[in-house]
Request: fold
Amino acid sequence: MLQKNNVAPDFSLFATPDQKITLSEFKGKNVILAFYPADWSPVCSDQMALYNEMLKYFEKYDAEIFGISVDSKWCHMAFSQSRNLHFPLLSDFESKGEIAKKYGVYNEEEGECNRALFVINKEGIIEWSYQSPMAVNPGADGILEALENLKTK
Reply:
């Protein structure tokens, strides 16, 4: 798993069936990447709902959040609409898990992303990373602490 001070690997992933998001386009903003195993699972649903509720706090730190899993762009669209999410879910579907592998958080045995968080600074450097046990929602405290540390730098 990539750690603090690693350069965050760039990527371009589908956020909707016809729109891609490229990480490098967000240089100059703080970015939160929330890798998670799968849409529709109970822990993932709760985790993404929590981050949806935390958006106003992330915005105070000039931070964008992106959820990333190996689910398809169509699955993400349905999941996002059903949960009324207001941040992009990115599809690491093809080649399956390619970006999760670059970040060191792909679970080959399960064929899905591990539950991992990254806070990336405005220059594209990882400031904080954390891998949670699969059955545990990592919450937002670590993210907020990392963003607060960036603010005081």
Summary: The chain has five helices and nine strands.
